[in-house]
Design goal:
With 165 residues, this protein is mostly helical. It has a domain at 52-163. Helices cover 56% and strands 0% of the residues. The protein contains seven helices and no strands. Helix 5 (114-129) runs antiparallel to helix 7 (149-163). The radius of gyration is 25 Å and the shape is elongated. Bound molecules: heme C.
Length: 165
């Protein structure tokens, strides 16, 4: 006599798989749904007359460095990579840009009080010296934004000159 496995056994065994499939389905739907919620991009169109580089007449080596390594998070214009159109990546980037601009916006630097400007200059030196800026999560992908020791020194010295005035 052949013994058949009771059906109930089978259904108990496949239950976790069914649940997994359901969870996966729901996640997939969510992923599709969140694509419709796009944050506004950080892309100011006008000329900024109170721009840091203009105000302090930065030489090309400094302005090139800051534009490549800092402006994506610390200005009113971000150069977005293609994956910035994908959620939740866009939210992640938006948060960084919002927090970065709140602390330091190079496009609006000239509107800060002289005391605040001086403090920010010192902060820039200290963040760059310590290698805290640009953020590691950023330089991981943006290799061109990694600052060499020589570049950091150039920036720190240039700011030293500004602080002495
Ligand atoms: C990927 C985004 C990103 C990039 C690129 C970036 N920053 Fe930041 N920065 C931030 C965020 C976010 C903060 C807010 C504090 C924090 O989360 O560490 C910040 C904070 C700072 C602060 C602190 C301001 C204060 O007064 O507390 C300074 C100074 C600074 N950044 C300078 C720079 C400089 C200089 C560069 C380029 C060499 C740079 N950052 C590149 C995102 C960025």
């Amino acid at each position: 006599m052949t013994t058949r496995r009771p059906a109930v056994f089978l259904s108990v065994k496949s239950a976790p798989l069914k649940i997994l499939k359901k969870i996966f389905g729901v996640l997939l739907l969510l992923l599709v749904a969140i694509q419709f919620f796009r944050p506004v991009k950080n892309q100011g169109r006008q000329e900024y007359t109170q721009d840091f580089l203009h105000q302090y007449q930065a030489p090309p080596e400094i302005s090139d460095m800051l534009k490549v390594a800092c402006y994506d998070c610390h200005s009113n214009n971000t150069r977005y990579p293609w994956y910035a159109n994908i959620q939740p990546v866009a939210w992640y980037l938006t948060n960084h840009i919002r927090d970065g601009k709140k602390d330091l916006n190079f496009d609006e630097f000239g509107s800060y009080t002289p005391k605040r400007q001086q403090h920010k200059l010192e902060e820039i030196q200290s963040q760059v010296k310590k290698g805290k800026m640009p953020l590691a999560s950023y330089t991981l992908i943006h290799a061109d934004a990694r600052l060499t020791v020589a570049q950091r020194d150039t920036l720190v010295h240039w700011i030293d000159g500004l602080l002495q005035h």
